[in-house]
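Lab notebook, design round three. We kept the backbone fixed and only want residue identities now. Task for the bench partner: fill in a sequence for the structure below.
Input structure tokens:
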């Protein structure tokens, strides 16, 4: 099995066409596998037995002919074709299923690799609205005051109603040093934010020792560098004889499936169940711990919040259900479906929901999230005073 090194595909012309991507996200969790393998045979077995082998495009050709003959304005062939593909996919009625053109695919990969120019916020779609999954700590979106679950209603005065995530991302991103005005709906109130874009480039894992003998591992996303950095951080903390570890996955929107499995494996014995994927109610894939659990038996507290989605929820669920950690913070985002991405001949890609994932205890957290064992909120006063009661609670548990 090959693994792709948030969330974001790009120009994959150098990649063999016999490759597909699995994305768990709001945020997005993906891993790469050869489509010639077993997983392709599983996922390419259609559950849509009531549909014809091919669609009848005569009606589309009729619309195109009339549009071409009668439209008073300029028509762009590429935009028309993109519109057809986007409309076909949107008709599925699933916010996580969408067509990405070549440009959007490139932006997708850049975000996964943790380097792009923008405001530093992960987006998702709920019904007709674009919402903030999580602002990335230390970057413009967080500094400006954006919060998880904020609805992004407008960009520079243009509505985002019923727009795809990739379309919204394209409008919000831009060269560093330029600014963008976001109209945000929060608790029924309209708020305006003027945000200056920056170069967003961050390692996915950082670590430190707090209170003398408690290790803290912060994972901001599950990207190509996460497995190596997390294992290195774990080994370093273990060598320092820490008596406990805090795993901080707050505002972590997701990332690589393989990275989530590898991170979970730091605490779990080999072959312990991490998650199951189900398609049409049947288990199609099981993920288990890889072995070499550096932190096995080390008392651990996981911190999550409303911005913790997909991959971070998988890790939190796996450690919680295997009694390897307790959870502190707020209920997580709630993303429990699986998307597959295939590169297309036009340089774009298709992201389509193919399955649902379940924690070791058999829970699918889609739209429900993971409840913490100890609920701790961060108030506006806490934020202004730079207090972190969630971190304080986690450290207190380990003392």
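Proposed sequence:
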């Amino acid at each position: 099995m090959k693994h792709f090194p948030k969330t974001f595909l790009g120009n994959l012309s150098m990649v063999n066409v016999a490759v597909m991507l699995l994305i768990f996200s709001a945020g997005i969790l993906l891993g790469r596998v050869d489509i010639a393998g077993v997983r392709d045979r599983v996922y390419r077995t259609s559950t849509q037995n009531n549909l014809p082998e091919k669609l009848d495009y005569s009606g589309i050709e009729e619309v195109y002919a009339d549009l071409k003959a009668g439209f008073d304005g300029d028509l762009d062939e590429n935009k028309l074709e993109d519109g057809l593909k986007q409309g076909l996919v949107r008709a599925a009625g699933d916010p996580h299923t969408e067509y990405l053109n070549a440009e959007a695919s490139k932006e997708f990969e850049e975000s996964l690799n943790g380097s792009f120019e923008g405001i530093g916020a992960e987006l998702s779609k709920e019904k007709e609205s674009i919402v903030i999954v999580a602002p990335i700590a230390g970057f413009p979106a967080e500094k400006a005051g954006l919060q998880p679950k904020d609805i992004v209603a407008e960009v520079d005065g243009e509505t985002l109603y019923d727009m795809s995530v990739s379309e919204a991302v394209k409008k919000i991103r831009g060269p560093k040093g330029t600014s963008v005005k976001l109209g945000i709906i929060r608790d029924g109130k309209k708020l305006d934010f003027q945000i200056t874009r920056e170069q967003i480039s961050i390692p996915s894992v950082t670590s430190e020792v707090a209170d003398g003998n408690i290790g803290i591992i912060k994972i901001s996303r599950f990207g190509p560098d996460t497995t190596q950095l997390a294992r290195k951080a774990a080994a370093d903390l273990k060598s320092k004889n820490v008596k406990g570890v805090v795993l901080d996955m707050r505002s972590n929107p997701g990332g690589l499936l393989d990275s989530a499995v590898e991170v979970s494996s730091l605490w779990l014995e080999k072959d312990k169940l991490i998650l199951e994927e189900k398609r049409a109610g049947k288990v199609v894939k099981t993920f288990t711990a890889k072995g070499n659990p550096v932190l096995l038996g080390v008392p651990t507290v996981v911190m999550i919040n409303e911005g913790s989605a997909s991959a971070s929820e998988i890790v939190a669920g796996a450690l919680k259900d295997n009694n390897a950690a307790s959870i502190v913070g707020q209920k997580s985002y709630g993303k429990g479906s699986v998307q597959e991405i295939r590169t297309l001949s036009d340089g774009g890609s298709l992201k389509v929901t193919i399955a649902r994932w379940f924690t070791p205890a058999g829970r699918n957290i889609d739209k429900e999230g993971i409840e913490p064992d100890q609920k701790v909120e961060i108030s506006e006063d806490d934020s202004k005073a730079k207090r972190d009661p969630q971190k304080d609670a986690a450290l207190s548990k380990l003392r």
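Keep this in mind before ordering anything: The chain is about 25% helix and 30% strand.
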